[in-house]
Amino acid sequence: MNSTSYILAVILAAGEGKRMYSKKPKVLHEICGKSMVEHVVDCAREAGTSDIVVVVGHGASQVKDKLETVKFAYQEQQLGTGHAVMMAESYITSGDVLVLYGDTPLLTPETIIKMQDFHRQGGFDATVLTAELDNPFSYGRIIRDAEGKVVAIIEERDADAEQKKIKEINSGIYLFNGLFLKDALKELKNDNNQNEYYLTDVIKIFNERNLKVGAYRIENPEEIMGVNNRLQLSQAASIMRRRILENHMLNGVTIVDPQNTYIDAGVKIERDVTILPGCMIKGNTYIEEDAVIGPYTTISDSHIGKGVNIKNSVVIENRIGEGTTVGPFAYLRPGNVIGKQAKIGDFVEIKNSNFGDYSKASHLTYVGDGDVGKGVNLGCGVVFVNYDGKKKHRTKIEDNSFVGCNVNLVAPLVVGKNSYIAAGTTVTRSVPEESLAIGRARQENIEGWVRRKGLVKEEE
Questions:
Q1: Domain architecture of the chain: domains with CATH
Q2: pTM score, two decimals?
Q3: CA 300, CA 313: separation in Å to the nearest integer?
């Protein structure tokens, strides 16, 4: 492998995050549908890194369960950033090493790519990612020489009055020559108040060896924002949400009220889709062009076809065909495949079912474990009785059948093509094609019964 093109990303994700006051590791807290560490891994991958090593510690098994196609190093004791990189030493080769943090989810692949270009074109042995802040308090300051090279990183507590005026700060993100980094790690010492090994000391070692250290300054300091508590988590989520919405709008999606629209990072939306206020679109949802979503609709991990209209509804793990209308107040639970030009009306609940093209369930209907053919009409109050107390059973309604209001379909059964089920019927056995099924008691009117029972209310 060409050492000039190989980049190992080392992501530090071992910290407990005490200020989150949480049972789960800090890096697993989510922003816009993904954990923070997943955002960082995706950033590194999209920036073209060759391999990714995540250094884990607190909640190691939980972090490992969340990530795929990465390698892991274990930091049993959290003894500083330099110590964390030491734990990944066995993975470091002659290529470059990019050091990232699992709690900086706003960093973009574009910034990493620009940093790599700057590093290589400048012939640097180490590059520090920096930013200028109006209020740099608490950050390490970047000290440059006349040629612009980094000669030191001075921490706030060690800076003198002039150095504290410097606004260029250290993000803690670095790009190193791997072999030089490996040698420098061997010389790190923990003779400080915290008894920790600091990665900033590697920069000092590089300078002592007359290696070339540069600094790539980013334009937007938001990208290097670290998340240490729930307030910062909320602030980072707000920034990422704004980015996501702006990207969709610039690609042809109408978002009527961005202040009240929430779209996860993994969502894909085609042009000419309209998102009305109050919507949450989550997970791996894909929405095709000309769809209208909302208002006040939640969609998760679903494929929404061209021209679909969903109002005031909840859709989870569904596939909905072209031109179908859903809602208001429908609940599409996981496992449904809804055909094209279908109608799922108000207060209709469907789960684990197939619902055919041009079929309708206009209101107040439950379809559970059903296979509904094409052109079927389900009247108001139809219930698929799918559960016998131990097992779920399926009901099949074949093409062009009509099911009247207040019908109970007790599974398992099949209603044949072009059949009719009379209103109020409880169907307990299959219905042949082109048949009428009726199963209700004959009506009798007993005249005078109310008066004889003394139940008539006389007018005053």
A1: 7-224 (3.90.550.10), 246-437 (2.160.10.10)
A2: 0.92
A3: 11
> Secondary structure of the chain: what % helix, strand, coil (to 5)?
20, 30, 45
Give the residue ranges of the annotated binding site for Mg(2+): 103, 228
- pLDDT at position 460, please? 64
In degrees, rounded to 5, the angle at the alpha carbon of residue 379 between the alpha carbons of residues 378 and 381 is 110
The torsion region of residue 145 among left (phi > 0), alpha (psi -120 to 50) and beta comes to beta
Residues of the chain below pLDDT 70: 1-4, 460
Residues annotated within a binding site for acetyl-CoA:
386-387, 423, 440
Annotated binding site: 12-15, 26, 75, 80-81, 101-103, 140, 155, 170, 228, 333, 351, 366, 377, 386-387, 423, 440
- Residue 346 confidence (pLDDT): 98
Q: Which element (helix H / strand E) includes 144?
A: strand 141-144
Residue where the block lists tokens 């993100």 = 173
Residue 31, helix vs strand vs coil? strand
d(CA 382, CA 348): 10
Q: Which of 29, 39, 303, 363 is catalytic?
A: 363
Cα(152)–Cα(168) distance, integer angstroms: 12
Instruction: Of 78, 76, 88, 103, give the one whose Cα is nearest residue 197.
Output: 78
pLDDT score of 386: 97
The residue to which tokens 């290696």 are assigned:
211
Q: What is the predicted pLDDT for the residue at 2?
A: 42
- For residue 459, count CB atoms less than 10 angstroms from its CB and return exposed for 0-12, middle for 13-18, buried for 19 or more: exposed
Catalytic annotation present for 83: no
